[in-house]
Amino acid sequence: MTVPAPGLVEFTRPQDLAEGAPLVVLGPALGTSVTHLYAAVAPLLAERFHVIGWDLPGHGVSDPAQEFTLEELARAVADAVTEHTGARSWHMAGTSIGGAVVQQLLAQDPERVASAALIATSNYFPDPRMWRERAELVASAGTPTQVIGCAKAWFAPDFLAEHSERGTPLLHDLQGTDRFSYAAACRALGGFDLRERTRVASVPTAVVAGAQDAMVGPDVAQGLADALHARYEVVDDAAHLVPVAAPELVAHTITELVTAAR
């Protein structure tokens, strides 16, 4: 095992940071950088909050790591945020594997999480064999093997044609991701299962799904929301990368959760 060291991205300029502003921490999806995934969300949040994001190992600004569990990744994210900001708790939003990290922290270190926005995510990602096979393929042939499939899964039909400036940078992120770190993240997802540890949320929580998401369908997201007794929202025109398709809705949801927690 190599201890992951998530790199952090500041979305709020120091000169714009209001004293006592709530801290919001954004988490990415597999194959993306947090910078591009929340490019249209973060500026809306930064008007009121201190907003930072973290990148997966070998993605974006993070150094590679070749083996880790989601439990280790969640702990590393929490440690990095505390070291960077001095905060002991914060509001969290995460997409896909980023949402799994939020859930992992809720299970293992709940006092860290003041509110939770769980986007296009689940407490279990079937099936382990598929994740192992994907890990083996990417480790041997690289992340470009995933571009066509991810383009179809990440975005609703016609989205890339109509909004190439929002979608293309994410596909470039995928191509530039360290293949061994991507493979390690696949194995971590294959070993992730919080179904027996999912409890009614003790903090304001929302589950947001894309109606056209073939990776984590609305029925799966609805089941997670029911288990958590969380607010549930479906975005009609979104596939897997909801923050790219519906940035205003995502920002509004996070803002409402932060407000409810205060």
TrEMBL record:
Keywords: Hydrolase
Top-level taxon of the source organism: Bacteria
UniProt KW tRNA processing keyword: no
Keyword Transmembrane helix: no
PANTHER family in the cross-refs: HYDROLASE ALPHA/BETA FOLD FAMILY, PIMELOYL-[ACYL-CARRIER PROTEIN] METHYL ESTER ESTERASE
Protein name: Alpha/beta fold hydrolase
Transmembrane spans: none
Pfam family, one: Abhydrolase_1
Gene Ontology molecular-function annotations: hydrolase activity
Domain (AB hydrolase-1) ranges: 22-159
